[in-house]
Amino acid sequence: MRALLPAATLVLLLLGLPHAAPWFHAGWPSLSHPLYVRTSFVALTVSHLLLVVSATALATAIGLALGILATRPAGRSLLPTVRAVAVVGQTFPPVAVLAIAVPLLGFGAAPTFVALVLYGVLPVLGQTVAGLDAVPAAALHAADGMGYGRWRRLIDVELPLAAGPIMAGIRLSAIVSVGTATIGSAVGATTLGSPIVEGLVGNNTAYVVQGALLVGALALTVDGLLAMAARGVGR
Amino acid sequence: MIVFEHIRKEFGGRTVIDDVSLRVEEGEFFVLVGPSGSGKSTLLRMVNRLVTPDGGTVRVDGTDIATLSVEPLRRGIGYAIQSVGLFPHRTVGDNIATVPRLLGWTKAAIDERVEALLGLLHLDEPGMASRYPRTLSGGQQQRVGVARALAARPRIVLMDEPFGALDPLTRESLQVSLKAIQRETKTTILFVTHDMDEAFGLGDRVGLMLGGRLVQTGTPTELIRAPVDDVVREFVGGARARLRELALHPVAERVRPGDTCDGEPVDAAASLQDALGAMLSQGRDRLPVMRDGRRVGTIALSDMVERAP
Amino acid sequence: MSRAPLLPVLMLCAIGAIAAATLPFAHVAPNRLLSGIAQRPHPWLFAALWGALAVTAWPRAPRGLAIGCVALVIVALPWCLAHEATTWLAGARATTRVQAGAGFWTMWLAAGLLLLDRLREVGRGWQVVVWVAVTGAVGGYAVAGGFDGIAVVREFHAQHDAFVEALFTHLRLCVLTLSLALLIGAPLGLRTWRTRRGEGVLLGVLAFLQTVPSLALFALLIGPFAWIATRWPVLGAWGFGGTGAAPAVFALVLYALLPVVRYTIGGLEAVPADARDAARGLGMSRWQVLVRVQLPLGWPVLLAGLRIVAVQTIGLAAVAALIGAGGLGRFVFLGIGQGATDMVLLGTLAIIGLALLVDLLFQGVLALTERRA
Predict the structure, then answer these.
(1) Which of B20, B62, B83, B252 is deepest in the core (most CB within 10 A)?
(2) Do C219 and A199 touch (CB under 8 A)?
């Protein structure tokens, strides 16, 4: 339900907006081009999603791997450092991470992608460590006593028990990514933020509204889908 | 058969196990009893190598377990603990099936085994196998824990205060179940507890541990009647130890056959302790004894108060 | 206060050494708009430095020496950059700019984390002393003009007035947001907690709002706010309009409400029911229970929530620059628009610094509160 309504809204917007020019003409009579046509809304949505999905996937892989490493006996000594990085890193605003990436990588999708990955790792990492730490000690002890190997214990017992927090981390990471990718259009990435930024620069409020509606629906869709997935996993 | 030879263990410079040697026979129910910190759990955990001794050897069926690889060893030994440690993300059935799955049993064999264990541990209410641990009572959880330990028909089962957190009634019913299962399957059980009554009630033999040393081993009667020193005497309960002993013997042992008297009868299979309780509550020093619904004789207070040998 | 373990020290040193050997330490550009030429002065010296730092991971190395070495590196790195800058700038044209490169930043970050790691071996008092000393040394050198050759500092001097104004605008936005969020959110949380009704709905709506990307929410507010301003011109005369501070603060408050309400409820729940019952039993009124029992006991939780809100608001306020609210974000987006990296960096560093500072401030207050409790 939580995913269905925003998803339906998103589809309706994608189908309806290209034909809504008369409405926008009526709403903003002073604008000569009240409908954003430089890139189709579908293309913008796909490019936005692609950026978010690929960045979140990479961030999840890195965050999971680091989180697992930091909770193994061999990597346990890294835990305080990992925690410090996660805490300090989270005080860096997403905009700042984005802005830092620009001088290093130039304009376009690349700095946005790097910023999304860097920033997206933190919640996954934090929640993986928290989730693995919260696995009941008795369950681990029993698993050892029954002859689980380390690897098998991780796969069969620890990760399933930590799945709830980890999914919450991935969800948070994805939501932040949707938002940061929107701002990414200010550094040249083609996303649903493009109509907003162009509208703000060119004083075209109609563009702004179109972009904002789409990106809002997209964010709520992604959030709803991941919430659904989290419920499926968290049982 | 489990053999401990001159086991030593230190934690941070403190000796927790001091030269312990012990032989647990095939099919025996052996209980290690002692106060917390006496080293009994540490000793138990050496058998499945959750703890490695600093000195000495542990042999299972004649083989030094230090030469075996850890995981197959553990899969071959049942293990139940006080905190149960059920996997909260798995159903009761899946929890019980843990070790058979690790060992690669067929699905049919696993299903059959789970079914049998649910019956054996009185967990046979409908739908039990598909419930999750958090929906069970503490007693039911521990029943599942015991079933999980027995699942792969291990010849040895280690139990670390499995009933310590349960209320007295639940504990007693689980003790009865466990004892019956052990008699039937002839499983070797090494059981740790700090509860003297539990130790004497369950153990074929009992080993008393104090401060890292195994101070006396023997049958419950031996520990009560012939404590090696005053410390052991104190620990098994001093003068009250004899009251404990009454719980170990059935009324049938002391019955005067053919005799009869007034009073509410006691069952021949009940313990002498129960009979004494009945006498106290009825205010009589003699009670009739029943077996299979027939009066078979009487039990008298004077027959319990045995003269010292 | 145990010894720092080997692994993190070695890893951070490896990161530092790799950064020294492969990443540009600085860029020298002919002017503020052109990109510079990568410079890597004495890579072997820096790599050796990290090797030396790795040696201090040796368990029997004196603790004070190890900490001192790391602290020294943190001070020496910017000093070294400034020193190199003067040699590159000597005889160059006035427009020439020296920017810190990825190598410098990575090494500085690694050194900072290393110090954080090693300081876990000593008490809180020493930690403060070392950090104050390090910040004092770098800050003092900066105030004395030691870094005037670095591009960001030049940019700062060139735009001094605009920067100070942006900083204050940013702070104003944040303080206003925080106060309003607290003023609205705390009673809202209290009421929800007391009536035990609508908690799910309220938190659901607020979580829903927080899911909407900041840029979209800011943008969506332009229309309604512009309409209000034209409808009631009095408001417009006060500077209320579709763009500017009004929609920015409105959106920022909406984002801040979720944590404020959530942590208010959390703080109230952190108070044991027994303590409340006892207070009521002793004859305190509901208001007295709130002020004398619930507030002191739940305060740390609420404070932890405010810390999150403050850091989040500082970051989000930067985005508000896109709808004309000003603040430090203006430097970032204006710089991006002009391709002026130094300007972007100035804004970004200021935002990060502000966030870290506020975070530290809250941590300090939190530590004081917890010690008292």
Answers:
(1) B20
(2) yes
